[in-house]
Amino acid sequence: MNVFVIGIGLIGGSFAKDIKRIVPGAVIHGIDASETHLEEALALHLIDAKSDYDDLGKADMVIVSIPVDSLVRELPKILDAVSDDCVVIDGGSTKNLICKQLEDHPKRRNYLACHPIAGTEFSGPAAAIEGLYEGKTNIICEVEKTAFKLQERALELFQKMGMRIRYMNPEAHDKHIAYVSHLSHISSFMLGKTVIEKEKNERDIFDMAGSGFESTVRLAKSSPAMWTPIFEQNKDNVVETLEEYIQNLEDFKQMLVKNDFEGIYSEMNNTNKIKAILNGIPLNKK
Amino acid sequence: MNVFVIGIGLIGGSFAKDIKRIVPGAVIHGIDASETHLEEALALHLIDAKSDYDDLGKADMVIVSIPVDSLVRELPKILDAVSDDCVVIDGGSTKNLICKQLEDHPKRRNYLACHPIAGTEFSGPAAAIEGLYEGKTNIICEVEKTAFKLQERALELFQKMGMRIRYMNPEAHDKHIAYVSHLSHISSFMLGKTVIEKEKNERDIFDMAGSGFESTVRLAKSSPAMWTPIFEQNKDNVVETLEEYIQNLEDFKQMLVKNDFEGIYSEMNNTNKIKAILNGIPLNKK
Questions:
Q1: Which residues 9-28 of chain B have a CB within 8 Å of chain A?
Q2: B253 Cα to chain A: minimum distance (Å)
Q3: What is the ipTM of this complex?
Q4: What are phi and psi of B168, to 5 degrees?
Q5: Among B211, B222, B232, beta carbon nearest to A283
Q6: Is B267 within 8 Å of chain A by CB?
Q7: What's the CATH number for A2-168?
Q8: Cα separation of A205 and A65, whole Å?
Q9: A281 and chain B: CB distance < 8 Å anywhere?
Q10: Is A217:B278 a contact under the CB 8 Å cutoff?
Q11: Digit-coded pLDDT (tens) for B220-272
């Protein structure tokens, strides 16, 4: 099987590692805007050969893991270049604009819209992890628009990789992912910003930081190049989640100001049920 | 050495485990408002015997790890009960009110005001971890008010436990810890609340959550009984950090609304320097 991975970083590279392990005889061709990344991916044996769009005609499967603004621009060209018997899978954190963009593409049946909910705050080929996707959820959108035998090829791989599959429409995907992923990133980035601003004058402050702070600001290490277009494409949903979050913080502050500590206890106690909810989330083993 | 641990949960229990390992012949006496916790601590061999305040006269060292409102109430009584040769150490996450409360206590010289910056989101005796404090920072306030030989006894233990010691005044401690610890907890609790509120109508939402969400809401599992009095005692500083955090979130939202995606990229890019800062934080090994 000829597999092309376009964008050979954390997401694409982790796919490449699993495919090499799972699919006997698979040849992984790497395409990336960065020559450095390609060389690194070769050196790390994530890919067997460097390639480009001219070669896509021989692909049986293409995995496209690039920022979501590039996805909107590149996926039509990629579909143009592949054969009728090739399945093109993406890993974008937004789905609505991408699906709309491809709606009338003559090769729409070759595309499977995916969002594997997995990753770390790191990026690039060296961040790729074998087994990253095991036990993780893969959201598939508009599955009915993909040719049946191509769905099957992709799903067989996902199953062997140990992914849980969920089907959703692109609008619902973008709305819900704003809450459980996009908002977390903003809350983390702004927490980091608030504390760094303070630190300008108070050099000692980070000596006092513990693992709780580290955990809540972990996502503030994430790539701006990846996240800016996600926020742009999912702007309306993200603004809505942010407004609700800011309101909850404002209410909490007001309870403090008014010395309503029973209210504060009760807010935290109610939110403790997140424990039970989190027990259902498959986490990174790393 | 007779060591009394008052409040035998995560913090006190982890002290007990390390002391048993480090101090040959140490006998650990446990005191706790909860009989269940005491029985659990005995069964887990965290303590050698159950005890009460009447026995405190024979203590060489007392470690008090109870919520900060209880600290303000109990520390004067504990100091009344100990001998002149006993050092009383607390682990409270606030220091200002506690130090003020003990300012004129006749046994002030027996007290060492500490805040070991270590913990997890769990609580109770079963949450105790051996080596929890290794490599962690212990903030000591008003060290000059503690008798020299009692400072020495405590510092020798902290050193053997592998802690980094930092000296600070109580006002500075409470101000800075609001940024690197208290604010993280509120940001996490309110993130959990925002998403749980949404989930009322959308049952599927948590199926989409990944490890990024888990990391940012981890602290929302923390104990309300521990955190409510912390926020109460450190109210002024916490309100200030919250105001700055809310303002930063509001500014980010405005950039989204105005389609200022260059600004958004630049905010995230600037905050990425948290990577370098976090590299300096000693983290839980667990």
A1: none
A2: 6
A3: 0.91
A4: -155, 155
A5: B211
A6: yes
A7: 3.40.50.720
A8: 38
A9: yes
A10: yes
A11: 999 999 999 999 999 999 999 999 999 999 999 999 999 999 999 999 999 99
